[in-house]
Amino acid sequence: MLRALFDQLLENKKRRRRSAVHERIWFNLAGYGLRPGFGYPIDDWRIEQIWDLYQQGLQFNQETQCWIDWWTFWRRASGGLNAIQQITVYKDIAAFINPSALTSRKLQAEAKKKSYEDMVKLVATLEHLPVEDKTQISQWLLKRLEKSSETMTSWWALGRIASRIPFHGSAHNVIDKNDVQSWLPQLLKVDWKKNKQAAFAAVLMTRMSGDRRRDLDGDWRNKVIDKLTIAKAPASWIEMVETVKKLDEAETKRVFGEGLPVGLQLIQ
Prior knowledge:
By secondary structure, this protein is mainly α. The chain is built from 14 helices and no strands. Helix 4 runs parallel beside helix 7 and helix 8 packs antiparallel against helix 9.
């Protein structure tokens, strides 16, 4: 049903330009109907049709809410974008995520107008990016998270992009476990009772995959398990670090950032 609704929106995509409200709501509804961008017949074709919209950009680009729905649309559909398309998106938002942006009033003002938090959410879903770019993004987020002013969403984004098991990307494109182990001390210093986002980020970064090349050393996973236990984290989170575990509906929703269409099953 959602794909049928999306197809109707796609057929009438030119009408989104009638007003800022039309454009904003079109992207909101179309993204909701297309999430997660793959997994249903002819989704590849649907992604081909919408890529032209990215090239065109927003028409009503002076309103923050339009930018929020724009980034949300691409986040919801990002699983269907190929590596080249994801790299294109990344290059357009990298300057805002780079901590050096904090020294530029111009970039800070633009990031506020374009909704920095939603750009962070989007970049975390670009799992087809080269490992070098994923590593760079993680380092940028860690640097930003040293300051309390950073959005809590950056913890979720860090966990997602440094995850041991990608949501839609290739296992060959996962950040090296040695890099992740070097970042864990920063997460272990955080109070996980107060900061569930940081705790879940650590879960994703240390989650068991069953692949020794990706799985962190046992002592690091034990440290995370001990801290999760003290923080009284959900038992399912601890289980994800202890053993290879398929995500349940609630965990999938937390990883993806929202619920997936009912009836659409993603096979790893």
